[in-house]
Write a structure and sequence with these properties.
The structure is a homodimer of 215-residue chains.
Chain A lengths: L7 H30 L2 H8 L3 H7 L3 H18 L11 H17 L3 H8 L7 H10 L1 H17 L8 H13 L2 H6 L7 H20 L7
Chain A binds a DNA duplex (18 and 18 nucleotides) through helix 1 and helix 3.
DNA sequence: GTCTATATTGTGATAGAC
DNA sequence: GTCTATCACAATATAGAC
């Protein structure tokens, strides 16, 4: 029933579209049920194609899963907030960074990707590595870079940028990641705002000290 | 081949032993492969019994999994360090608490339980709730209680105990939980010690202020 | 490349003898 | 309670026609 124009370029476009169609179906099914519980039958049904077509585009289930994870990592990375190193109100930039992180951990599909990558991490260590580097790792690196500019500008004094970036991220994240992973309800937004405010104040106060290693 | 004495009490003991034997086998298999990938065949083989015996002791796969999670939660809770409210060196108590948390997140089977509970959390919400309440939730409650004694003793001044406990726990935990969930290698212990030291100093400095809400 | 139909394997759970 | 043998079913992946 499908109309397929027979010359080359259109054929390629046609393939690309089917591939994206399958990937989108895989996204729906995998993010909902995870790798092991999702069946290739269900994905084919969701995509509106036959299983044979599915296997024509992706070598096997693992291959399709990897394609999805890579795609999601790109999306997540694109949603990071990059603080403006030239902005004068640097404390506000830190707050925007924190708010963006909390938003990522709660609204977007970051928790969903986390939920499906965790159970297969030991089976597909390469995928786990990719997720860590392009997700949390990238967030840490970005934060380190911005904190470094704040040090160079004389606003903060940080002996170990990596440790500081980690402290910032886990302070403002709080239990969001954990609750997301366990599909538990989040607490009232007011509590989250208060945690963010308090955490940023704590962070700035500590690293504003001339000699934080003095305790 | 098994010698079974026929009068009542011994029979019960025999059952109890078989039950524990099965639970231990389930522990080995489930913690290694997770709920979906583990088969009742494998568990029966590991336990050295037949599948029928297994189903005589546990209603179904889910029932056996729940028994394991409950058992693990008890073990985890028993390994918490409870700070001594009467100890004069309260900063040392905080450090012991932090060190114990990091030990739990890295050495024990906390990461393993976390890995297997995450993928089924939405299917078994009651189990996810139990894990949260008896794991992280209990840690937060214990920490809150100790921080409260420190406030009453005049060492600290904390406007919101729950937020503070959360900040403390996630500060000292850092990326341990994340790396454990993803089966990624931990970073050098020196980095962990430095993070702990720095985080405790940050925490104490902030909550030592007469009016932390001023900033 | 795409479909229908199928091969093959492994799963959770059970029947029936002892 | 415990075993052996088996059912009923769903899964991944493929064969063969078009």
């Amino acid at each position: 029933m499908t109309v397929v124009v027979s010359y080359g370029s259109n054929r390629v476009r046609h393939l690309r579209r089917k591939g994206q169609q399958i990937l989108e179906a895989a996204r729906t099914v995998f993010l909902e049920a995870g790798f092991d519980t999702s069946s290739m039958d269900a994905i084919a049904r969701q995509a509106g194609v036959s299983k044979a077509t599915l296997y024509a585009h992706f070598e096997n289930k693992e291959d399709l899963f990897e394609a999805l994870i890579r795609f999601e990592c790109q999306t997540i990375g694109a949603n990071f907030y990059r603080p403006d190193p030239l902005a004068e109100a640097w404390a506000d930039e830190l707050e925007k960074l924190a708010t963006n992180l909390r938003k990522l951990f709660s609204e977007n599909d970051v928790p969903a990707v986390y939920r499906i990558i965790v159970p297969v991490a030991s089976r597909f260590p390469r995928l786990a590595q990719i997720f860590f580097e392009e997700g949390p790792g990238a967030a840490i690196r970005d934060t380190m870079a911005y904190l470094e500019t704040l040090c160079e500008a004389g606003h903060l004094q940080i002996p170990d940028l990596e440790i500081a970036a980690e402290q910032f991220i886990f302070l403002v994240s709080g239990d969001l990641e954990l609750r997301g992973a366990l599909s538990l309800p989040r607490r009232p937004a007011e509590k989250g705002r208060e945690l963010t405010r308090s955490s940023i104040a704590m962070f700035i106060q500590y690293y504003s000290k001339p000699a934080p290693s003095a305790l």
